[in-house]
Amino acid sequence: xxxxxxxxxxxxxxxxxxxxxxxxxxxxxxxxxxxxxxxxxxxxxxxxxxxxxxxxxxxxxxxxxxxxxxxxxxxxxxxxxxxxxxxxxxxxxxxxxxxxxxxxxxxxxxxxxxxxxxxxxxxxxxxxxxxxxxxxxxxxxxxxxxxxxxxxxxxxxxxxxxxxxxxxxxxxxxxxxxxxxxxxxxxxxxxxxxxxxxxxxxxxxxxxxxxxxxxxxxxxxxxxxxxxxxxxxxxxxxxxxxxxxxxxxxxxxxxxxxxxxxxxxxxxxxxxxxxxxxxxxxxxxxxxxxxxxxxxxxxxxxxxxxxxxxxxxxxxxxxxxxxxxxxxxxxxxxxxxxxxxxxxxxxxxxxxxxxxxxxxxxxxxxxxxxxxxxxxxxxxxxxxxxxxxxxxxxxxxxxxxxxxxxxxxxxxxxxxxxxxxxxxxxxxxxxxxxxxxxxxxxxxxxxxxxxxxxxxxxxxxxxxxxxxxxxxxxxxxxxxxxxxxxxxxxxxxxxxxxxxxxxxxxxxxxxxxxxxxxxxxxxxxxxxxxxxxxxxxxxxxxxxxxxxxxxxxxxxxxxxxxxxxxxxxxxxxxxxxxxxxxxxxxxxxxxxxxxxxxxxxxxxxxxxxxxxxxxxxxxxxxxxxxxxxxxxxxxxxxxxxxxxxxxxxxxxxxxxxxxxxxxxxxxxxxxxxxxxxxxxxxxxxxxxxxxxxxxxxxxxxxxxxxxxxxxxxxxxxxxxxxxxxxxxxxxxxxxxxxxxxxxxxxxxxxxxxxxxxxxxxxxxxxxxxxxxxxxxxxxxxxxxxxxxxxxxx
Length: 793
Hints:
The chain is α/β, with parallel strands linked by helices. Among the domains are: about 230 residues, P-loop containing nucleotide triphosphate hydrolases (Rossmann fold, 3-Layer(aba) Sandwich); about 170 residues, P-loop containing nucleotide triphosphate hydrolases (Rossmann fold). The chain is built from 31 helices and 18 strands. The strands form four sheets. Strands 3-4-2-5-6-1-7 form a seven-stranded parallel β-sheet, sandwiched between helices. A seven-stranded parallel β-sheet has the order 10-11-9-12-13-8-14, with helices on both faces. It has a two-stranded antiparallel ribbon with strand order 15-16. Helix 3 packs parallel to helix 4. The protein is extended, with a radius of gyration of 49 Å. It holds the Pfam family CTE_SPB4. Its EC number is 3.6.4.13. It is an enzyme of class 3 (hydrolase). RNA helicase.
């Protein structure tokens, strides 16, 4: 058989792959064109009940199905078709109605139809007012967009800025907070937004208010004018100025609850309780004790109140897990608390309005608003944390009697149905005495209570709606007592108001009121001082003492300072009250006590050479401060010890002006070299003289030692035969003591009453004694030498 020709040769495997790619590209093109045609033919007036009824791409449909999203909510059925058409939208819907999917689905679909890739840059920007809400939106985006090839990123504060900058240029969809996004626009060079297609603002009313106004204006300036903008919130803004700032073009207003009977879900039961300010904490604790198997969110107006209520109730142990969340916490802590509360079945979390918007906590039973919200919109957002997605829920609003009329009127205007209820008296508990004991024993808790009180009073004072909030209508003294404080801290703005009123009163009238002779003056009763008064007057002796002093200084605690002064007078052991000179006589002391001014100069020993003139009681009091005295003391010079232990002054940099004043640098350098050379020459001469002196001393010592050795040898070697003395050498040896003489023996120890002779024999040391026996006295010189040799062995 003939070999196959080239035209009958089988195809290579690479050709099959290229053919498959080309077929896939053609299929994708056909699918995109078909999808675009379906969107163009879409009738926005028709009703859509399920996601499968909408012209969605296969990756989006698969992601929705995998995430168990099938049925469309009211806001989704109205907003998604308009957004797919490319319209700008203003969406207002009830809390928990599914607004997140209403803008995430159009974002994915519009980028998919435009065949967006990572090389095209940023395509959609989603802005959220809080970090927690941004994280929640990002998680939903990951779920429904799992089958897409887009890259998405989360940009919020509290994370590494450098890591975000490295990845920012490759992102197609960004979920962010306003402050962090503006920071990247100003500092990240690789971040470009020229190709942006969609801008989404979730909780738009909060983003558009004064808190984020400057940041949003700066972000919009960076964005291109030709884009699609979507605004969603539970309470939407319609102000022309806000819409003009965002460059909206003929926006479509989508509202779900405007024509409905209520702005809140029908499954939400809403109540309010008339509770005086002094009974709020008692009622709250009693409520938590009665619902220990429920999941509760308690809203307060400030983070300091959240901290105080959390710490107080944590010590009281109501029997339910307690948490707290506010904006001052670190990002990791906030995420941990949010996830922990979401996973719990029964717990209570104290939070500020950072939790009020958009967050989806599953199965929340109760929403308690301990502090009245600033307006009806904030109330709607708060209660929206429960009764989500047609589930049941309950909400309770605590109202002071002064807030009732105005707040109910605002809620009625927003179509919020609410009814009054009363707590059961049998289950009411009072925790005032326990809080007082806790504040007395724990200065830190008392400090937190004072800061919480001040922050609450200020939050009321700055409210715009004076029909509801008026600072003079609140029982602040009773509220301070209910927190365990021995008195209400004076607040700076209230003191200013009182001073302003006193300033407008005529002096004659003021003096007549103070010194009225018509009415009899009642004698002042002695004030009874309790332990709580003394507690409030003392200074905290712990790490919070500095902050506590600052709090007193800020809030004008003049009475506390006077009381503390009186307390110090009682315990003035070795404390300086007056500065008196050494030579001052007793007569001068009596004269100085008569008036405020102290005549003459007084010298404080050990402070300075100059006399300190004390001409007033105030200056005299200041001189008792160690810090003031330290400033008046003469400052010495620091010394440094070298290796030889000699002290010298530290080398410090000279002032530039003094250096220039002394002449040019070259002349000073030459002078310094000359002086240094002279010092080295003098030191060299001193070293040479010292070396000569040491050499001379060594020579003298050597001579003295040699002379001493010679003199010692002459004295120790006696001559056997001297010319002047006719002494016999035998007489010298005869005078030497022998080994067995009694004089050389040690003295015998006296016996004690219990010892006998046998013990004395045992105690004798056994020594080898050499006894030199001489039968006769030595007569010759040889005998004498033999005797001496025996002695020396």
